[in-house]
Amino acid sequence: MIIIKKYPNRRLYDTSKSQYVNLEYIKTLINDRTEFKIVDSKTDGDITKSVLLQIISESETNENQSLLTDALLKSLIRFYDGDMQVFVRQYLEQSLVQFIEQQDKVQGLMKNMVDNSPIGLFTKMMEKNMEAWQYDKSRKK
After folding, report:
1. Are 1 and 14 a contacting pair, CB within 8 Å?
2. pTM of this prediction?
3. How confident is the model at residue 74 (pLDDT cuts 50, 70, 90)?
């Protein structure tokens, strides 16, 4: 697990790479499904959630990237401090996990269809020919 320290000057430091990073780097870790934890440099307290919320907040200001509508946010706020809060959290988390798994399966099927289509097979054949020509060309030198 990668440990990232957040300093009082708001800079983030990846201890595994010994370098300063930014929020885009954190988004890359998330997209790559790399496990990480963000800690306060002074207290060693876990502040991962607050940084993740910052990323969401910044993404939500861009209408083109926004996922959370006003109606959805209002509904979520209504569940805080309510009897159903734990169940809603579990439901949302499980729903997103299943959605992502289904998305990965569909993408895999689409890639398989493209790879095995006539165009995909032709592309593979052309790549092999190019490799053979490059190999033959390098042997003649």
Report:
1. no
2. 0.66
3. very high
